[in-house]
Amino acid sequence: MKKIQLPLTQKEAAKLKAGEQVLLSGILHTARDAAHKRMCECIVERKKLPLDLKRSIIYYCGPTPPKKGMPIGACGPTTSKRMDEFTPALLSRGLLAVIGKGNRSTEVVKELKKHKGVYFVAPAGAGAYLALRVKDAEKIAYPELGPEAIYRLKVKDFPVIVGIDSKGRNIYAK
Amino acid sequence: MRKINTAIIEQKVCEAALRANFILRKDILDALKRALKKETRPLAKNMLKILIENSRIAKKEKIAICQDTGVAVVFCEIGRSAQVSGNITTAINKAIAKAYKEGFLRKSVVSDPFLRKNTNTNTPCIIHYDFIEGEKIKISVMPKGFGSENSSFINMFNPTASAGEVVKFIVESTKKIAQNACPPVILGIGIGGTIDKASSLAKEALLKPINKNNPKRHIAKIEKEILEKLNKTGIGPMGLGGKTTCLGVNILTYPTHIAGLPVSVNISCHALRSATVVI
């Protein structure tokens, strides 16, 4: 299985093919509905974003709190299509890759292709399995959102599949 | 009358909530293992292996099977000869709050659908009460995640609709949204009653083991047909293609009005979690 050390480069993103299984190591940032809404409001209001989109991979995830001795609790992906309306704005500001589960809208597929971005899918419903692949976790923005805060995760061999590649090929397309 | 203290109810419900979140139901795990044996596509096989391994890790490390530890849906059957000292609703809610705090489970409940402030306790839970014979209390806790809940649907059919039409509607509707509900899915279906009764039956149907059919032959036939048709779609684990899109279909029915045929479908993902205690 291909191993990628993050941050993902444009060159590496261009080589990925839909359906490929990949192991990611490095930094991911979690963000789901509420955080996305806030980040898009920041963009509209021309305020500073809580993370550097160009060097980030956003992972749609709201983890369970960690028990003692673990950096994070269960942390599987949440349904991506709820973030569809917010994704084009983030892609246009340099976001290169996102991780979630399920298909995306035709607009998001189009925008991913336009910005040569990649959509990864993580194993859905395997929260405990994925927790063991997170080596460090820190809440870096919107702590008042609880599980919907932005977490910075350090992962090792985090298994994902290329869902939509930079050429717009989509594993969910019939 | 047998007196039951709310303290014991609180303790047992807390245990059930933790168990439900850490230990995958045996009928579900067995179904995943059977699906793995049948599967031929490498990606689908890998996904199923991960799910099985996930359940092993969750049980061993006491980490939630899925990070969406859901809304706590509780079915409480109270024996007519049982007398509860105290407020049972308060006791159940306290138990859930305790389990979600001590078990490091996610607090996913907001107090108002529009204002959306997290209650930070994962309560209130949704409690369905019923009365049964005897002096015991039977309580089932089902953490219900919302990826699957959001995929659920309902239709008020004409009373003359055939079983075939109902099957077609359920299969076609499930096909459209299955991948957002973490397939392979399980369907809890309520048929009859009123719009609300059909939906609470659909949720209750998810408590039933998936390896047993409805005792009524004509209903069991519908269960088998829906299961077979969904598994022919090729949607597969995580919607990435494969032989198993649905692990089981459970239908519960109820008498209904001469002008209606309510059909409610509550979808569950493969992480169908529930645990039952009897006091």
Overview of this protein structure:
The complex is a heterodimer of chains A (174) and B (279). Chain A is an alpha/beta fold. Chain A has 5 helices and 7 strands. The mean pLDDT of chain A is 95. Chain B is α/β, with parallel strands linked by helices and 279 residues long. Chain B has 2 domains: 2-22 and 65-144, Dihydrodipicolinate Reductase, domain 2, CATH 3.30.360; 147-272, no CATH class. Chain B is built from 8 helices and 10 strands. Chain B has helices at residues 6-22, 26-38, 42-61, 88-102, 146-149, 163-177, 195-205, 217-232, and strands at 2-5, 71-79, 82-85, 126-132, 137-144, 153-157, 185-193, 246-256, 261-268, 275-278. In chain B, strands 4-2-5-10 form a 4-stranded mixed sheet. A 4-stranded mixed sheet of chain B has the order 6-9-7-8. The longest helix of chain B has 20 residues, at 42-61. Chain B is globular and about 50 Å long. Chain B starts with a strand and ends with a strand. The A-B interface holds A 19, 21, 34, 61-67, 70, 73-76, 78-79, 81, 101-103, 121, 123-129, 131-132, 145-147, 159, 161, 171-172 and B 43, 46-47, 50-51, 53-55, 57-58, 61-69, 104-108, 116, 118, 120, 147, 150, 179-180, 182, 238-240, 269-271.
